[in-house]
Design brief:
There is one protein chain. Helices cover 35% and strands 17% of the residues. It contains 8 helices and 12 strands. The strands form 3 sheets. Strands 3-2-1-4-7 form a 5-stranded mixed β-sheet. A hairpin with a 3-residue loop joins strand 9 (146-152) and strand 10. The relative contact order is 0.15.
């Protein structure tokens, strides 16, 4: 049985699952990650029930009561400010305009809660697993969309005045379609970086390319849904398929171009790439090389190497290593710093 020392929980609320972890006052992970089904589309009260269930499982697994949890970090998959959800995203309507942080705290008997969005939480998690890193960290994570977050030296996420900072997928990108038009982003605006760098963008791009006469005989022109084609595209790229490599190279170079502008603004020193590509050995190294080509095309040379000491790298690139528990760990460590 563990003693009833202070523990801090991290609750990563996703659209499908809620991932939860505990860390102790020393910053060590206590027990295993607990994952429960998400009920975000059934309303926040239904989700609160799942969060309580996860907390009970976390504490029981290490032999303590829920009273041992002295603080909670929580992330939500939507824009929020000071505990209040500002946009629906994939949540039920009752989340919007509600102070989720304070209502959950009241339900849990006043346990203090730190709340942020999922991009910030993932960035905090990548910072937390790099125990020796004390500088800044910019996370850019291509997935279904394009998320990210910035952690300042010392381990605090930069969230902006309204919690709306670092929407990295929605910075402007100058690249255009073959017809000269800017692509439309899922947010409704034109020319966002996410409109080029995301799974959704790959679906659009592969559809446009396969419609060209020169690709009539491509194996992906098999009548399968475009969503399936996009998921299979990486396998084709790993096998050296020319079209697949063209699409991924285009995406990676445009991503590097966008990262160059982010680095020019924030100069983080370390850029971490997350999302599904972080889990693919082999191909991700090629993708990173393509991304660096776009970065070097756009960035000034000093953002790659110091002009005083050419051996000194000024912007390092690494793949995410936190895995599925990164966001939960990130907010758990933030709770530890705030509430211990």
């Amino acid at each position: 049985m563990a003693d009833n020392a202070n523990y801090f929980a991290g609750l990563d609320i996703g659209g499908t699952t809620v991932k939860t972890v505990l860390v102790d006052v020393r910053g060590e992970v206590a027990g295993e990650m607990i994952e429960v089904r998400s009920h975000v589309k059934d309303g926040y009260e239904a989700t609160f029930g799942q969060l309580e269930s996860a907390l009970d499982q976390l504490t029981a697994a290490i032999g303590v009561t829920r009273d041992a949890v002295k603080g909670i970090g929580m992330d939500v998959p939507a824009p929020s400010c000071d505990g209040v959800i500002w946009g629906r995203a994939n949540l039920a309507e009752d989340w919007v305009g509600t102070n989720i942080r304070d209502r959950l705290s009241e339900r849990l008997g006043g346990t203090p809660i730190y709340m942020t969005n999922d991009g910030n939480a993932a960035a905090l998690g990548e910072y937390a697993v790099r125990r020796k890193h004390i500088g800044g960290l910019l996370l850019v994570a291509p997935g279904t969309g394009l998320g990210g977050g910035l952690v300042l030296p010392g381990g605090r996420a930069y969230e902006g005045a309204n919690g709306l900072a670092l929407e990295v997928g929605h910075i402007s990108s100058p690249f255009r379609e073959d017809d000269g038009e800017l692509p439309q982003c899922s947010c409704g605006k034109l020319g966002c970086l996410e409109a080029w760098v995301s799974l959704v963008a790959l679906r659009r791009r592969i559809g446009l390319e396969l419609a060209k006469p020169e690709h009539d005989d491509h194996p992906l022109n098999d009548g399968s849904p475009v969503e399936e084609k996009a998921f299979r595209l990486r396998d084709f790229a790993q096998e050296g398929d020319e079209l697949a490599n063209f699409l991924f190279q285009q995406q990676a170079r445009i991503l590097g171009y966008g990262i160059a502008d982010l680095v020019r603004v924030f100069d983080p020193g370390l850029v971490v790439l997350g999302g599904g590509l972080a889990e693919t050995e082999g191909f991700r190294d090629t993708y990173l090389d393509w991304m660096k080509e776009g970065f070097e095309e756009r960035a000034w040379a000093m953002y790659s190497h110091s002009p005083i000491d050419p051996e000194k790298i000024t912007t390092r690139f690494e793949w995410a290593t936190g895995g599925d528990s990164a966001a939960a760990l990130g907010v758990a460590f933030s709770a530890r710093e705030m509430f211990r």
